[in-house]
Amino acid sequence: MNTGINSILCCVSLHRDSRAVLEYAAKLAIATGARLCVLHTVKALDDDVMNTLKANIRNQDTLSDLMQQRLDQARQQIDAKLEAFWENHPQEKQELGGQAIQVEVLEGYPAAVIVQEATRRGVDMIVMATNKRGFSASYAGKITKGVIKRAHVPVVVVPPPA
Predict the structure, then answer these.
(1) Which are the contacts of 143, defined by CB distance < 8 A and separation ≥ 6?
(2) Element (H or E) spanning 37, and its range?
């Protein structure tokens, strides 16, 4: 059965537990036969911080290395989270049929980066967590609201575990 969902972008955070969103995205990928891409966005440094760094670190290579270290450290943490997730969910890993799960760590304003990456990859669905509970207008956080507002594909919002 072709559901029209061939690719899913799963957005994870380092600041909170991502197990629920990973589990939901994996189950959707299994049910639809879709490819799964996991994305973490490192928030860009404020202009004031960047100006201070540029003023105090005059060597451009050193500054570039420091900026790359931020992304590399985030990638290591995401890889560790994913490894722990798959160790605890071997059935889902097996049901995904050994397909390569793509992992990306990008820098920028998270909502904009998520939508840009979804567009660039041509994904059919975005799965992300919210850090809030309830059904009020404030249910989704700022980043989730930004993605919902900008995205041209369905956005599945996974509530935090109880």
Answers:
(1) 110, 111, 114, 128
(2) strand 35-42
- Residue 86 makes CB contacts below 8 A (sequence gap 6+) with 92, 93
Separation of alpha carbons 6 and 32, rounded Å: 7
What is the Cα–Cα distance from 87 to 93, expressed in whole angstroms? 9
Query: HSE-up of 162 (CA within 13 Å, CB side)?
Result: 0
pLDDT in tens, 45-97: 888 887 888 788 888 888 888 889 999 999 999 999 999 999 999 888 888 87
Q: How far apart are CA 25 and CA 31, in angstroms?
A: 10
Is this prediction's pTM over 0.70? Answer: yes
Q: Please give the order of strands across the beta sheet that includes 125-129.
A: 102-107, 35-42, 7-11, 125-129, 155-158
Tokens of 8: 């899913």
